Amino acid sequence: MKSSLWKWNTRTVVTIGIGGALYGATSWIGIPIAPDTQLRPAIALLAIFGALFGPIVGFIAGFIGHVINDLITSGTVWWGWALGSGITAAFMGLIYLAKDFNAQEGQMKKNHVAWFVVYGIVGIFVSLAFSGYFDILVMGEPNDKIAIQVISAGLANLAVFLILGLPAVLAYVKRNRNNSNLSVDR
Question: Which segments cross the bilayer (predicted)?
Fold first, then answer.
């Protein structure tokens, strides 16, 4: 049985810490594609932590990880983009709420896969729209620069989600499905 979204224990806090640290530590790895924008494989971690632990854990881990990355790489936190990483993971984590979905027990049907893809795509573009508007309205960034960043980051994040994130979650579910017939002898 999967844990409740609202049941917080040591495991939940440790999961958020590990997720945030992993995302923060790996987000600096990327290929530049536009001004201040990279294709970052770490986006796959948002899909993994969201799907396996839910939207709340995903949001917090994504937000903390982005803050860590900003502090490590530039010393300045771009709050709109940090919130955007959290929003992306939260949307991807909506699959956790689906009836009969349980990655820990290897339960993921074809309709879950379809909804996971939809949540991921919508989450990526909602979060980038939020981040872009935040930068324009709060940070005073120029519209044309933000448009280029949002479009290029959206396409890059979509590719990473579909090529790395989705297969990683599917592999995890498959692994757990194959091991679900094991029993413990006492």
Answer: 12-31, 43-65, 77-97, 113-134, 146-173
Pick the closest to residue 107 from 50, 51, 47, 46 (CA basis). 51
3-state DSSP call for residue 37?
strand
Give residue 178's pLDDT: 78
Instruction: Give CATH for domain 16-178.
Output: 1.10.1760.20
Q: Quick: pLDDT tens for 3-13.
A: 777 788 898 99
Question: With b meaning 16 or more CB within 10 Å and e meaning fewer, what string describes 149-185?
Answer: bbebbbebbbebbeebbbebbeebbeebeeeeeeeee
Determine which helix (DSSP H) or strand (DSSP E) holds 146, and give its type and residue range.
helix 143-160
Work out the angle at residue 51's Cα, subtended by the Cα atoms of residues 152 and 70, and round it to the nearest 5 degrees: 45
Beta bridge partner(s), residue 34: 37
**Prediction pTM value:** 0.91
Q: Are strands 37-39 and 31-34 parallel, antiparallel or unpaired?
A: antiparallel
